[in-house]
Design goal:
By secondary structure, this protein is mainly α. It has helices at 2-14, 43-63, 77-82, 86-96, 105-116. It contains five helices and no strands. InterPro entries: CPI-17 (IPR008025), CPI-17_sf (IPR036658).
Length: 138
């Protein structure tokens, strides 16, 4: 009797929606994947970058409240870190926020301060939508 209950429990876990497979063996539902960070990247640096990205998202939501359609698609941290001076970074951020009707000076100053503690991660760079693979006209 106990073996039958155990068998049913194991069988029900195997057939649970999170493990179900759709036609052709592809996952039918969302499966939780366990992420692993390799030793190649400093875990603290990655966490710092993630915190800055979350902060940027929250601040942009506040700045563009009611006008979300005008919000920039992204503020690419690596592109900002590639710029040589804070003045260039500030101009780049101002250009991204041109459509914002709320004051942006505090956001820009705080972001510049947060960027001072970050370093460019060459392995994490993802091409932005403006990157088309052609050489830049520098």
């Amino acid at each position: 009797m106990a073996a039958q209950r155990l068998g049913k429990r194991v069988l029900s876990k195997l057939q649970s929606p999170s493990r179900a497979r759709g036609p052709g063996g592809s996952p039918g539902g969302l499966q939780k994947r366990h992420a692993r960070v390799t030793v190649k990247y400093d875990r603290r640096e990655l966490q710092r970058r993630l915190d800055v990205e979350k902060w940027i998202d929250g601040q942009l939501e506040e700045l563009y409240r009611g006008r979300e359609a005008d919000m920039p698609d992204e503020v690419n941290i690596d592109e900002l870190l590639e710029l040589e001076s804070e003045e260039e970074r500030s101009r780049k951020i101002q250009g991204l926020l041109m459509s914002c009707t709320n004051p942006t000076e505090d956001f820009i100053q705080e972001l510049l301060a947060k960027l001072r503690g970050l370093h460019k991660q060459p392995g994490l760079h993802q091409p932005s939508p403006s990157d088309d693979g052609s050489p830049s006209p520098r």
